Amino acid sequence: MTATRVLVLNSGSSSVKYQLLDMRDSTRLAVGLVERIGEQGSRLKHTPLTDGGGTRERSVAIADHAAALKAVAEELARDGLGLDSPELAAIGHRVVHGGQSFTEPTVIDDAVLAEIERLIPVAPLHNPANLMGIRTARALRPDLPQVAVFDTAFHTTMPESAARYAIDVATADAYRVRRYGFHGTSHAYVSRATAALLGKAPEEVNVIVLHLGNGASASAVRAGRCVDTSMGLTPLEGLVMGTRSGDIDPAVIFHLMRVGGMSTDEIDTLLNKKSGLIGLCGDNDMREISRRIDEGDERAELAFGIYIHRLKKYIGAYCAVLGRVDAIAFTAGVGENAARVRQAALAGLEPLGPAVDADLNAVRSDEARLISPAGARVAVAVVPTDEELEIATQTYALVDR
Ligand code: ADP
């Protein structure tokens, strides 16, 4: 029997998200989530997609990632999709930070694990959780190929001029301070899907990808390779996000320390969790902000205005970085659903080439689609991202079958 299934694991500090895919036709066999690992009220939500069976939710005491994966394995086994099945070809792990070491998806061995561990200082929140997921999965199926797919990998093609901060080189190198970028799996998938939508090969087109979810980032992709992205050493840089400030003058931090008496941790929390849309207007959900704007709420309008202004600046900057732009693609929760954001972000940019057709922009769909009028110099696309499929595809490509 040929093994055609891939399990995709996205392990966070207190959650594990998973999807089981059949790579013969890229279909999902099951999806699910374990939440509140190691906390009160941990729970598992599992949806088999094979026979239309409904979602099963249960509250179970799940002390750690090993217990979480064991519970997932039990649920999958109930649907005849057990992890001991010979049809399982590999497990693909989302790993947030691959630094400069990992430019491609990589089959995991002890040396790879050690290198992901060495990168913990640049990703203290994410890499330890990713490592726990990998170690647990290896213990469960030591014979199975396991592949790490890095959020940073797609951005390792950035030239030094885009990847370096203009700070003292020795200091930067000593502490590995540089712009790594994140959401790379999404930017890779969406830039390729956008080329396909235009009927072109990725090498033939230049694309600006706007990944606008709760976290948000933009990238400039020339001929299939990333040449700039808006997130940096951490996901804090760049666009205004749901709860992150994006770009600020770094001296704001010194000011808050010296004049505000705030600690490093307090400022970290302020900028990552209490800023962006939620800091500006108390809501980080674009649906709610949109509803408030319709009711004439000035704070919501100001937050939206700041969000759009920053987005426009990045679109303009990436037009300049790329020179020739073939398409601008919107993706993730906000990008795929918020017609208002797409319209506002491109309003007035017609002299640069992009244009939005109001009727096409208003259409709701799960399909990749163009929303620019025929003949627009720069096509505008809405492309639903699929990071799990991309991780599964990259994983499966590395497995001997
Ligand atoms: P992440 O993966 O970063 O958590 P998502 O890509 O799932 O985020 O995006 C979540 C965000 O998408 C929500 O916070 C909300 O602002 C936005 N969103 C989802 N659906 C809609 C919609 N129908 N209209 C406007 N915004 C939406």
Could you provide a short overview of the structure?
This protein has 401 residues and is an alpha/beta fold.
List keywords for this structure.
single chain, Nucleotidyltransferase, domain 5, binds adenosine-5'-diphosphate, six-stranded mixed β-sheet, alpha/beta, 37% helix
Q: What do these coordinates show?
A:
The strands form 2 sheets. Strands 5-4-3-2-1-6-8-7 form an 8-stranded mixed β-sheet, sandwiched between helices. The protein is built from 15 helices and 14 strands. The model has no long low-confidence stretch (mean pLDDT 95). It folds into 2 domains: 5-150, Nucleotidyltransferase, domain 5 (2-Layer Sandwich), CATH 3.30.420; 199-387, 2-Layer Sandwich (Nucleotidyltransferase, domain 5). The chain has helices at residues 65-78, 110-118, 127-140, 160-163, 169-174, 184-197, 251-258, 264-273, 276-281, 286-294, 298-322, 332-337, 339-346, 358-362, 387-397, and strands at residues 5-11, 16-22, 27-35, 43-48, 56-59, 88-95, 106-107, 146-150, 206-212, 216-222, 225-229, 327-331, 369-370, 379-382. It has 401 residues and is an alpha/beta fold. The protein is globular. Bound molecules: adenosine-5'-diphosphate. Adenosine-5'-diphosphate binds at residues 213-215, 242, 284-287, 332-334, 337-338.
